Amino acid sequence: MPSFSTGDDPGSSFPELLRRVGLGPVPIAGLSTDVMRELSVPHATTCVALTYDDGVVMAGDRRATSGNLISHRTMEKVVEADRHSGVAIAGAAGAAMEMIRLFQLQLEHYEKVEGTSLSLEGKANQLSMMVRGNLQQAMMGMVVVPIFGGYDLRRGCGRLWDYDATGGHYEERDYVATGSGSLHAGTVIKVGFRPGMSRDEAVNLAARSLWEAADADSATGGPDSLRGIYPVVATIDADGWNRLDDDDLATRYEAIVAEVRSR
Amino acid sequence: MSMPFYVAPEQMMKDRADFARKGIARGRALAAVRYSDGIVIVAENASETLRKVSEIYDRIAFAGVGRYNEFDQLRVAGVRAADLKGFQYSRDDVDARSLANSYAQMLGTIFTHEMKPMEVEILVAEVGLASSGDQMFHVLYDGTVMDERDYAAIGGDAEAINTRLAESWSEGLDRAAAISVGRVALGGPDREIPIEDLEVADLARTNGRRCFHRLDRADLGF
């Protein structure tokens, strides 16, 4: 059982605890960008998030690619960070998934040790430190670029943050898009966005943005009705994280298909 | 230079045990009661913020009596041990038995090696996937571990509370009944614990991944 003397205590930080017991991240050093490219690690692609009346919607496609190949069809890059926040990640899949796992653990660890949750801004700052910790790997091509969103219980509204590879984080008022298809997905949301949308409208806009991204970007996966694979779409409001089920998404995508066909 | 007096080891251990027991007996007790969906832990605690019962991991809860700063230190150590194990292996590999053993080691070492033993008693409870997997471990100030199945009482007057629990507990209680069994056993025959002095937490299979849930006054519904 880990025990520390007073004044030498890692407090409520889980990454710091990991370092102290010797389980901290092992830096990957001495690999060039070329070697990394040859390893062709899977990359996760497009994610979007936007605010609506009662909270935020987060959505991401399910595809991971290694170079020109599809390496996974059912990846989940939009995940619940804790009850009132979610994180969506684009970039090198291995590093991204590990970062999500550590982030989730950190939020839960803090909550248990302190007896209360971190504030939403505190969570955004934590994630920023983790992205910055990945900087060395980012410079070798293993870039991880998350979006963080959640419901701020103190202010009573949904909030969004955008990150860059160096850990810089910027709060966005309306919407964020990240990953290879972010240009297309972001444009769809930009055009369709209205302040104070309902949950239903916001979900439809997010679904539509991923459809257009998949249409124009080969690394973004569209809805796959053949295999029953749909993007991950979730909303976070005062009641917490709520992921839409596949049947609901299937109906929404059928409507989009019908609309596209009728043009 | 003066020579220290010789103290027989038996006497020294007895003194320490008496010291710890006295410290623990000063505080209020708590009881854990198994029911159909899990385990409820009922504590007599006048404070709304300094908790005696808390979450350790998905299916594990911790309860402590005695000196607050000492059992809180144990609680944090438990959260760290559990989170580290879950990170290193998997969430399924974190269990109450190994955690209770770690606590026993720590308390045993402190009891024999440190200036002062810890004046605490703790309870580590775990809910299984089915009711047959529910278990509780009661760890004493000197590192003695006891496993309990249906109910447990720790703290001052624990023996009398245990007797009352034995009389009123039965298999297949629902949550409200289990809380009431715990509350009555803690209060004794001539005292009813006021609802604002109760701290109740529920460790239920039906709560999803994180089984631990604090019950506020509205949830108690007395």
Account of the protein in words:
The complex is a heterodimer of chains A (263) and B (222). With 263 residues, chain A is of the alpha+beta class. In chain A, 38% of the residues lie in helices and 26% in strands. Chain A contains 8 helices and 13 strands. In chain A, strands 1, 4, 5, 6, 7, 8, 9 and 10 form an 8-stranded antiparallel beta sheet that branches. In chain A, strands 11-2-3-12-13 form a 5-stranded antiparallel beta sheet, with helices on one face. The longest helix of chain A is centred in the middle third of the chain and has 22 residues. By secondary structure, chain B is of the alpha+beta class. Chain B has one domain: Aminohydrolase, N-terminal nucleophile (Ntn) domain (Glutamine Phosphoribosylpyrophosphate, subunit 1, domain 1, 4-Layer Sandwich), CATH 3.60.20.10. In chain B, helix 4 packs antiparallel against helix 5. Chain B is globular and about 65 Å long. At the A-B interface, helix 1 and helix 3 of A face strand 3, helix 2 and helix 3 of B.
- Record the strand order, biggest sheet of chain B: 8-1-2-9-10
- By DSSP (H or I, 4+ residues per run), the number of helices of chain B equals 6
Q: Looking at the chains present, what oligomeric state does this protein adopt?
A: heterodimer
Q: What count of structural domains of chain A?
A: 1
Give the name of the CATH superfamily of chain B. Aminohydrolase, N-terminal nucleophile (Ntn) domain
Biggest sheet character of chain B: 5 strands, antiparallel
CATH superfamily of chain A: Aminohydrolase, N-terminal nucleophile (Ntn) domain
Gross CATH architecture of chain A: 4-Layer Sandwich
Helix content of chain B: 25-40%
CATH class placement of chain A = Alpha Beta
Report the span from N to C terminus of chain B.
Answer: 66 Å
**What is the CA-based Rg of chain B, rounded?**
18 Å
Approximately what portion of the residues of chain A adopt beta-strand conformation?
25-35%
Number of domains of chain B: 1
Count of DSSP E strands of chain A?
13
Low-confidence stretches of chain A: none
Q: What letter string, H or E per element, gives the SSE order of chain A?
A: HHEEEEEEEHHHEEEEHHEEH
> What is the helix/strand order of chain B?
HEEEEHHEEEEHHEEH
Return the CATH architecture of chain B. 4-Layer Sandwich
Summarize the amount of helix of chain A as a percent range: 25-40%
Largest sheet of chain A: 8 strands, antiparallel
